[in-house]
Design goal:
Length: 161
């Protein structure tokens, strides 16, 4: 399956992409731990079936020192023992915030309460924006049919500076 459109080489898409990237950089620079950010983005990308984003976030997390065991268990985090309580709260928020159409209530009060136990307001704001942005990014990967497998870790590191 060939990609339908290259959003990185299209002039208009690249212009919008720079603004999109600026929001992502602000989230990355927040006090929300970067390893947690990668786990959240990986989980949402798995749910949304974005091969490009699963590839990217798996490889970037591994390059940053995340273990293979934890990366393999993200999809089954509820049935595994390798995630902390804050990570579990963030992964629950990511799932509920990603599956809005599947859960008429959106993010449950119970999940929100768990998130409030482990994160301050700035971190929660970063987490909410992170879930929104990765869901948008997943659409930018799935709609034009970007394929996973070719991503090289650190490709977007220059954007963070």
């Amino acid at each position: 399956m060939e990609p339908r459109l290259n959003l990185m080489t299209n002039e208009f898409a690249a212009k919008v992409g720079k603004r999109f990237a600026a929001v992502s950089v602000a989230i990355q620079q927040s006090s929300l731990p970067r390893d947690l950010q990668e786990l959240v983005m990986l989980r949402a990308s798995q749910i949304n079936g974005c091969g490009w984003c699963v590839d990217l976030h798996t490889k970037d997390a591994a390059a940053a020192g995340e273990t293979a065991v934890r990366l393999h268990l993200v999809a089954a985090w509820r049935e595994s023992t390798v995630f902390t309580e804050p990570e579990r709260a963030a992964l629950a928020l990511a799932e509920e915030g990603t599956r809005l159409a599947d859960a008429h209530q959106g993010v449950s009060d119970a999940t929100w309460a768990r998130v409030r136990e482990h994160f301050d307001d700035d971190q929660i704001a970063a987490l909410v924006y992170l879930v929104a942005m990765i869901n948008a990014a997943n659409r930018l990967g799935v709609i034009p049919r970007n394929q996973g497998g070719s991503y090289e870790p650190g490709l977007f590191a220059a954007l963070e500076n």
